[in-house]
Amino acid sequence: SLASTAITCFTRGLDLRKGTEDVLCPANCPLWQFYVFGDGVYASLSSVCGAAIHSGVITNTGGAVRVQTLPGQENYPAVNANGIQSQVLSRWASSFSVTAGSKSTALEAVGRSVSTARPSTGKRPKKTLDKKAGNKDCKADIAFLIDGSYNIGQRRFNLQKNFVGKVAVMLGIGTEGPHVGVVQASEHPKIEFYLKNFTATKEVLFAIKELGFRGGNSNTGKALKYTAQKFFSLENGARKGIPKIIVVFLDGWPSDDLEEAGIVAREFGVNVFIVSVAKPTTEELGMVQDIGFVDKAVCRNNGFFSYQMPTWFGTTKYVKPLVQKLCSHEQMLCSKTCYNSVNIGFLIDGSSSIGESNFRLVLEFVSNVAKAFEISDIGSKVAAVQFTYDQRTEFGFTDFVTKDKVLSAIRGIQYMSGGTATGDAITFTTRNVFGPVKDGPNKNFLIVLTDGQSYDDVRGPAAAAQKAGITVFSVGVAWAPLDDLKDMASEPRESHTFFTREFTGLEQMVPDIIRGICKDFLDSKQ
């Protein structure tokens, strides 16, 4: 029989090259990270293993799957199945279906050494690029923000245009590949052309060639902010679910400040790259407003989003590495996700039946959930309230804006000990903790942790919290009555209610809670 190819959690239908292919999915893929479009018939943009779990062919323990390529179609539906929420897609050029692979092929794949069982991305037959469709493996909507200031001058401006043209060619622009547009930064920004204007490389190259040099100060910050806010609208051709990227070309240094523009871009879910050419010399550094301008503007200050070229001459060798970055969509950390766009409030039972050592296990659970999210001033936020008969806000959503500070605040929570009035505590938290953020951009979640019967009504306060736009998860331990837990939880109640006999069982729930939050977040974005 045909040997299966071992693939990764993220291999998509369009990454496979045969009409029918036997593949082997790994175990323990993070369900909430799967992108799946459709039901039964999946758009080729979908993760193969995600589709296989969604359709029930395998579980999260992995296994052999046979993938059949199918023609494209209109209207892939969104269906929730086996812990995966598939998403709507109005049309795509190719599809696939999944069926169970044969066991013998699976054993062969497992028996092979790890080194050969790599995803089938390395040695492929030469790709026959469908010219119009473009490079389907590169998912990106890109704005090239070119430098049109007096800093660069007419001659280097033309070299810059040549470089952008080479990048455009290598990207593989097409209807299903990357789309690009150009904005020129000078005194005032000017959008030269939008994503929707051209979907063929030839047209883009012609448009780049025609660009005229504007001159003026290099107000890159102003141009970056303008591009982040105005360029990526749906009516200008931005596509839902495709990473938005701005590549800023900077000759020398900016005349204005980039920090605010960087924040705005991140708020808008845009990934900013900076390509700096001819960095300021030591003498020139005195004229730079902010020496750290690159770090403040890029999506993440992790080295991935900044790129340096010594001059505009001989830049051909810099084209490919830049294109590889722009096409690695799993690295685009600034696209809005459940990780960076939620507020999570923890309501922690401090009653005397828990005891000091179990209370530590509860805090460990809270930390482990919080740890999964990107906590920052413009990202996700965490708050905690402890309750007995009374309530104590341990910290609010705006008190700590870094993950380290939040985690150390959780560690520092002191056990109160007392009675259990869960209803009052929910009312208190809805008003005092969620009240101040209710008009913010993030989606609100409340996780109620309790180990026993509440002395007051929980149903009314929980309904009021949900009405205020808060999704409630209830987590019960030991003597917490299931009826109470269900009464507090958001719909569908089954997936928002958790219970464990022992406090040590909390640890196993962490991935399910995170997945639940991400699933609700995605559903709210549909």
UniProtKB/TrEMBL annotation:
Protein encoded by which gene: Coch
Role this protein plays: Plays a role in the control of cell shape and motility in the trabecular meshwork.
Domain LCCL per the UniProt entry, residue ranges: 3-96
Primary site of residence: secreted
PROSITE patterns attached to this UniProt entry: LCCL, VWFA
InterPro entries per the UniProt record, alphabetical: ECM_Assembly_Org, LCCL, LCCL_sf, VWF_A, vWFA_dom_sf
Chain residue ranges for the region called Disordered: 111-132
Location within or outside the cell: Secreted
One Gene Ontology cellular component: extracellular region
Protein name as annotated: Cochlin
Organism expressing this protein natively: Cardinalis cardinalis (Northern cardinal)
GO biological process, alphabetically ordered: sensory perception of sound
Superkingdom of source: Eukaryota
Keywords: Disulfide bond, Glycoprotein, Repeat, Secreted, Signal
Residue intervals of the VWFA domain: 141-326, 343-513
UniProt entry tagged with the keyword Repeat: yes
